[in-house]
Amino acid sequence: MSTDEDSSRRLLRAREDLLSEDLDGEVVVFDPAEGSLHHLNASASLVWSLCDGSLTLPDMCQVLAEATGADLADLQEQLGQLVGQLDGLGLLEKD
After folding, report:
1. Beta-carbon neighbour count of residue 27 at 10 Å?
2. What are 16-60's pLDDT values in tens digits?
3. Measuring CA to CA, which residue among 8, 12, 6, 9 is closest to residue 49?
4. What gap in Å lies between CA 40 and CA 95, rounded to an integer?
5. Rg of the chain's alpha carbons, rounded to an integer?
6. Strands (E), the chain
7. Under DSSP, is residue 48 helix (H, G, I), strand (E, B) or coil?
């Protein structure tokens, strides 16, 4: 199985030890292990709210495409980049 196939089957879940707070539609995430603070804009905050371990990236794209009417291909590219950033920051659980 390739890395792309692995990532498309991975259930996206925020790390349980993170603290997050919604501030006027945007989310601030504190990582106590790193002592770092992350500010998520409204779009990233919506994606963050879906990182509950119940959806894969393709599932998330489909949900958002249906809810917003956005183009699925555009969402796949944009969400792939965003999830990659969240993952790179260590904010998502590793399976």
Report:
1. 19
2. 999 999 999 999 999 999 999 999 999 999 999 999 999 999 999
3. 12
4. 23
5. 13
6. 19-23, 26-31, 36-40
7. helix
Cβ atoms of 15 and 90 within 8 Å: the answer is yes
Distance of CA 32 to the CA centre of its chain: 19
Identify the sign of the CA torsion 33, 50, 86, 4. positive
Query: Per the structure block, which two tokens stand in for 5?
Result: 């196939």
Structurally, at CATH architecture level, domain 3-88 sits in: Alpha-Beta Complex (3.90)
Collapsed DSSP state (helix, strand, coil) of residue 35: coil
> What's the pTM?
0.88
